[in-house]
Design goal:
The protein has a single domain, classed as Hotdog Thioesterase (Thiol Ester Dehydrase, Chain A, Roll), CATH 3.10.129.10. The protein contains three helices and five strands, in the order βααββββα. It has a five-stranded antiparallel beta sheet with strand order 1-3-4-5-2.
């Protein structure tokens, strides 16, 4: 699945050097993953209603060049792997085609007690179908 989300940098996300603070990038990436899930019918409200949470358990970020105030950033979110209770994502943030940052994410499915559980019926299949056929996103 390849999903694109556009975000605009806001002044309060800047560090003292007038670059986007590194912690703000994680918020951008999170927003893009949530929007990607919503776009395929598996938004957080639906998951919560059935007692499932998707939580990040591993991520690796690489920052290439700084984003600055007023930039419009595009985050491309792609599912690389789907397992029974987890998924692996690659996200790429760009500005006018130039890579700003990348994030590799592993996320798990847990129940309301915080215990690992299978992805909901249909969710793994939807993610897998879109992983194999990104043009359907």
């Amino acid at each position: 699945m390849v999903h694109r989300t556009e975000l605009k940098v806001r002044f309060y996300e800047l560090d003292p050097y007038d670059h986007v603070n590194h912690t703000s990038y994680f918020g951008y990436f999170e927003t893009a993953r949530v929007e990607a899930l919503e776009s395929i019918g598996w938004g957080l409200h639906r998951l919560k209603a059935i007692g499932v949470q998707i939580v990040v358990f591993d991520m690796t970020a690489r920052f290439e060049v700084p984003a600055v105030a007023g930039d419009t950033l595009t985050v491309q979110s792609e599912v690389l792997e789907v397992k029974r209770a987890s998924s692996r994502w690659r996200q790429t943030m760009t500005r006018d085609g130039e890579t700003i940052a990348t994030l590799d994410v592993k996320a798990a499915s847990i129940n309301t007690d915080g215990r690992p559980c299978r992805l909901p019926d249909g969710m793994a299949e939807t993610l897998e179908m879109l992983r194999a056929h990104p043009e359907l996103a």
